[in-house]
Amino acid sequence: MPRIEQLQAKHQKRHEITVDKLTQMAVAAYDLAMDDKCNQPSAAVSALLAIGKLHGLVVDKKEVVQKRDATDLSIEELYAIARLGSPRNHQADASPRELDCVYTVHDAGIPAGPSPRLDS
């Protein structure tokens, strides 16, 4: 048994923490939350979730994603990534006003640079 589990078991035994005891406490919290004087539905839902987790009916799942370095990737994977980031055809996606700006700049012999702001 790993050291952490040994310490947890010792702590649980010392404080008499059991699933039954925690379930009783959660049920009491649920009853109090649903009492006419209290009427706290969000607290009741929290108590229900606690009961579900205690009994394995509600499981928090986390996806573990391993980060990879570019040196770990195959040449095919690198090409696939490069294709995802390839430039799109801006002229095909441009509005007529944007096309006028592009052609004006090119026709005037002005070197390509940042696009002019069109919203002004």
Structure overview:
With 120 residues, the protein is an all-alpha fold. It has two domains: 3-54; 73-107, no CATH class. It has six helices and no strands. It has helices at 3-14, 19-34, 41-54, 75-84, 90-93, 96-107. Helix 2 packs antiparallel against helix 3 (41-54).
Brief description of this entry?
By secondary structure, this protein is mainly α. The protein is built from 6 helices and no strands. It has helices at residues 3-14, 19-34, 41-54, 75-84, 90-93, 96-107.
Give Rg in angstroms.
31 Å
Helix count from the secondary structure assignment: 6
Low-confidence stretches: 102-108
Q: Tell me roughly what share of residues is in helical segments.
A: 55-70%
The ordered H/E elements are HHHHHH
Q: For the residues shown, what is the average pLDDT? A: 76
State the shape.
Answer: elongated
Could you say how many structural domains there are in total? 2
Distance between the termini: 69 Å
> What is the number of beta strands?
0
The biggest beta sheet is recorded as: none
Structural class: mainly alpha
Percent in strands: under 5%
Indicate the topology.
Elements: H1 3-14, H2 19-34, H3 41-54, H4 75-84, H5 90-93, H6 96-107
Descriptive keywords:
120 residues, 0% strand, single chain, mainly alpha
